Amino acid sequence: MIKEKTNTTLTFEDFKIEVLNDYKLAIISRECSLLGRKEVLTGKAKFGIFGDGKEVPQLAMAKAFKNGDFRSGYYRDQTFMMAIGELTVQQFFAGLYGHTDVEQEPMSAGRQMGGHFATHSLNEDGTWKNLTKQKNSSADISPTAGQMPRLLGLAQASKIYRQVSGIPNAANFSNEGNEIAWGTIGNASTSEGLFFETINAAGVLQVPMVMSVWDDEYGISVHAKHQTTKENISEILKGYQRENGSNGYEILKVKGWDYADLIATYEKAADIARENHIPVLIHVNELTQPQGHSSSGSHERYKDANRLAWERDFDCIRQMKLWMIAINIASPEEIDAIDAQAKKNVLEGKKAAWNAFIEPIIEEQKQLVGLLEKIAETSKNKDRILQFTSDLNSIKSPLKKEILVTARKVLRLILNENGKEELSQWISSYTKTTQEKFSSNLFSETDLNVFSVEKVLPVYPENAKEDTDGRMILRDNFDAIFTKYPETLIFGEDAGNIGDVNQGLEGMQEKYGELRVADVGIREATILGQGIGMALRGLRPIAEIQYLDYLLYAIQIMSDDLATLRYRTVGKQKAPLIIRTRGHRLEGIWHSGSPMGMIINAIRGIHVLVPRNMTQAAGFYNSLLECDEPALVIECLNGYRLKEKMPLNYGEFKTPIGVVETLKEGADITLVSYGSTLRLVQQAANELLEVGIDCEIIDLQSLLPFDINQDVVKSIAKTNRLLVIDEDVPGGASAYILQQIIEQQDAYNYLDSKPQTLTAKAHRPAYGTDGDYFSKPSAEDIFEKVYAMMNEVNPSKYPNLY
Fold first, then answer.
1. What share of the chain is helix, strand, coil (3-state, %, to 5)?
2. Which residues are bridge partners to 758 per DSSP?
3. What is the pLDDT of residues 688-730, one digit of tens each?
4. Residue 591 catalytic?
5. Which one from 99, 277, 299, 591 is the annotated catalytic residue?
6. Which string of b and e fits 662-677 if b means at least 16 CB within 10 Å?
7. 210: alpha, beta or left, given left = phi > 0 and alpha = psi -120 to 50?
């Protein structure tokens, strides 16, 4: 088949050149894997996971991959990345060494282990490149199948761009929706729930996704018989095969060592997905893994002699060699020459990568050695300093850690000597410069970050009354958002037809269509994935998780993918996804949880906003759409029917992010809380006034970021007392809040009483009104806690209640 096609489009000589170039690339990639393993075993690299055995199918995939397409893949796709021109031999080894220079190691600047690939979607100022002019790879993550949810969104973006008009700058992100999202995964990882959830969702949505399963029969050391029913993923997915008049997949199966058939299969898959937006599954079987799973062990321990012999015979590169010889593409001698040249090229690339990595560190080593020798000359601890210097100087391949450890230990020896100031300055400068290489870009560092958005107050008519349901504030603000930003869309369980369970989207689907206001299945992880993928392609999605408790289904994707995206790409990719949910107080264990401590500690890299009412929430959505960072907005579940004033400037007023609000000034104690609990705090504060206790109430508004102006400590400086009230479990978000106030803001300088917390019980909230009352802080609990703190201060004025 491949000969027929090439004979009509290429001369045999052209065809021969193309095949030989493919073979050269396959051999270079294989040599990288073989030499990479040696670099790990000799200690230059820390860990290795390679793409050997998968080279030939990745060449075929690369041929069908076009500008504008996106990959969401598996950490063995090095040959593919080389084939699309986004990975050189030197960059491969720079990744293995963990080089922190993004110019040398453009995938993650050493923040991820080798085999994790990404392309750069952003300019230096954080603005988008034209993604249709380049081949794109979303940044890999290690958790198996964790790439699947994002893949769904990358594919859905093509559908949105094809069918939704008026999106600004659409031409920078899509050519009329003709892009394919290409997924890759190992056969064993198809056992993960995220794989099946994504496969189902893509079949429902009918999006242009081509899913490749690299099948070498093992998952680490565990055979497919323990992984997959019938030991065959395409066999058990037959029910997804599309039929006349039904949605579903085109399912293709191909041997991973058959170069010609692989190319034909990938061309067919691309044509189906690109033109018709039909998802395709390609089961690439009969693959091998010449070096086993990773550099941490040998596959000889778990494969028998017959399997090992078969793998040697059916290695995809060996089979490609035999095929090339059989059809006179190349002679054995020509192939041997290619192999020899490839080994030479890889050795040269490895050497260049190592020199680029180690030489700057050796220069830093020399700088410190020179400084320490100078300091030693006048030190009473000269011999000890020179010993440290000698030990450091003897290290042929130093780590930055070893350099800094030496400097810090010597500093202890010269605390009262002349060289202390110079060495101290050197350590501070070196630490700052080096730490930045490992810690930058957790959040946006561009002018598009959340702090660039200026506060805009809601504008109210004269004599406005609190007579509007909170859910109507949200609804009318979403209406303004969808009009103002054609690139926005929202999707979630019950978000479309009925306008969400609390009617905050009432009428929006009818007005803006089923693609922009969409119902989805009960599948929280891929709801998040839809949002991540679409945000990676320039859209502004709002992914709705119906209740805060259900966020647990998606927390892994939020934590491992979205929260780390900007960090693991050193600011070269972004996904400004807004996650909308509702929580805190309703009924029972799974509808009134507040697992905030878990959330804020799992998703550093995503802002966490906790508005107390719907006007605040609407203002947060307006603010977020003017910046480029992801955020979680938690609306108050029991606030949709509470009355608020109706603003006049929907879509324009903006709640500042990271800024607290003082709801009531007071002199005796500072009460800090957020969300639904604030209404109880306000009730208790009014009752405490009756017994002469004047509370200051602060609404945090956001937990990440936290009080950037340090207004809480200013309040404590006045009241000298602090109580944090929280619906989370003991030691949950309240512990984080205390750490921020006491440690980061130095509030201990102003406290005359022990800072305390009042939280929910350690168990989940029980069902019913009584369950809520006895599980979470009540107004009476708050009153009595504050009263007890004041009793300690002045027992005669505030005698014991009990």
1. 45, 10, 40
2. 725
3. 999 999 999 999 999 999 999 999 999 999 999 999 999 999 9
4. yes
5. 591
6. ebbebebbbbbbbbbb
7. beta
